Amino acid sequence: MKKLLSVLAVLAMSLTLTTVVSAPAQARPDWDLSSRFAREVVRPGDVDRDTYNIEHVYELQYRLKWAGLLTARPNGVFGPRTEEAVKRFQKRRGFKQSGIVGYRMWKALIQRTIQGKGGVPEVCETRGWHACYDRFRHQVNLYHNGRLHNSWLVRGGSYGRQTRLGDFKVNWRNIDHKSGLYDGAPMPFSQFFSGGQALHGSRYMMDPFEGHSHGCVNFWVEDARQLWNLTHDKKLHVHVYGAWD
What we know:
4-stranded mixed β-sheet; Muramoyl-pentapeptide Carboxypeptidase, domain 1; 9 strands; L,D-transpeptidase catalytic domain-like; alpha+beta; 5-stranded mixed β-sheet
């Protein structure tokens, strides 16, 4: 009887281990999504290779340009000129001049390169969660109880399908949405706020200042995941403002 129980215990353990090992692993970013102004660590040699492999190099380059430290056009490749600009920013801020962009540098860089702060609608800084999309500057700022929590580079609708201006609330969400109008195009981490228009991750956006959506607000997928993790179970207000660009 003891031998039988022992065999059964071994079999049970084996089945448990098999279940754990065979369970599909969910891809997760390697940084804390909930931290203010969080991004992953970016190093020399990193490349935004395609829409499935975004390392936030484009964003880094745009923000370095806005800080007056990079003259080259953003191309998604962390080469020598980008590294030199990073080190200049680190020297300016009193950081170690490593050329590696970690959380402290991201936080300082994002805070100092948010565009059009004076034009943000006052409602964005009221109580609750507010995603404020500036169509002209290709930027979404997230506020919580009047405090700026993060800012992301995005793109909106084309001239003929502009993202609608106004004040809205997210009324429906789908973490793995597929478009019913555009051949099942993936729209991960969708948060719908006005008809078929949503804040969502895009598998088609590389440079947020090139091209447009069909009216939705496109994020890089990991940025849309950040917004989702912070707000998917909250009442999220969405404010769309600014001239079309």
